[in-house]
TrEMBL record:
SUPFAM superfamilies: CRAL/TRIO domain (SSF52087), CRAL/TRIO N-terminal domain (SSF46938). It comes from the Eukaryota. PROSITE patterns: CRAL_TRIO (PS50191). Residues 97-261 form the CRAL-TRIO domain. InterPro entries: CRAL-TRIO_dom, CRAL-TRIO_dom_sf, CRAL/TRIO_N_dom_sf. Pfam families: CRAL_TRIO. PANTHER family: ALPHA-TOCOPHEROL TRANSFER PROTEIN-RELATED, RETINOL-BINDING PROTEIN PINTA. One of its GO terms (cellular component) is membrane. GO terms for molecular function: phosphatidylinositol bisphosphate binding. This is CRAL-TRIO domain-containing protein.
Amino acid sequence: MAMSKKPFQTTLSEAMLKKAYSELGEDEERRQQVIAIIQKWFGQQPHLQRIRLEDYSIICFARGCKYSMEKIKHKLDLQFTLRTALPEFFSGWDPLKPKIQDALSCGSFLPLLDYDQHDRKVIVMRPGCFDPMLHKPEDIEKANLMISDTMGWKDEQIFVTGMVIIIDCQGFSLNHLTLKPLTLTKKQMYYLQSSPISPKTINFIRTNSVFHSAYNVVTNMLNDKMKQRLKVHGSDFKSLYKEIDRKILPKDYGGDGLSLAELTEHWKEKVEENREFLMDSERNFRVDESRRPGKAKTAQDIFGIEGSFRKLSVD
């Protein structure tokens, strides 16, 4: 695959460049070096030839993988393999489709616009914000992933400083739990493994009795390292403020940031603005398994039978 005509130009602030240098050993020379190595490797993989790999994506993965070449290669291959093997999440990526419009209007995945006191990205997830009788979980997940891709394409800093997650369980009901197949949850958890970054902490708020049933199911899919990053605050926002700067939190949580409704509208508009990028990613981020060296990977190979999923691993 041909190199980009123009060298990659980072948009990180001076403070973030210093952080990337001190924590990742990143400088201009190393950025260009990793791009050259990965682009050359990518061009030698027959099954990846349909994919247009941007220099920006390489740098994001490099930062998330702490510049480990083998991890970068593994995560990139896994990312595109799963995007191919999970059509229930990665097909029909047109944000103007009525079902996707409805899903975006629910506000299930809401990155905050400001960073916290540790310069981390904060993402609010709301698994109980939609009526599970009206919305298919696959459509909600598609909308969430579209927002995630839109966020990541514009935000270099998240790959340097990392992210924290708030899971707001308000409205989470027995129907949310029973109408979503366990296999779908497992596939979501598996896909997290292909992300170049993993959450520093996952904070549960406004929990209820149904949450605890779901919590037990999900934690069984996590390894011990990830379990240590889970924090259950319940309705104690003062406890949450110790983890995340209150000033940047939504007004709904006693903060000074945009409300959940305002964030929902903001990200719906952003996804619509990036419609072409998202539709292109659906077409272009596909592995040609017929050309994979060795044995092609099918969904059955990757996910196996019920109960055979590996626990979520994190660095």
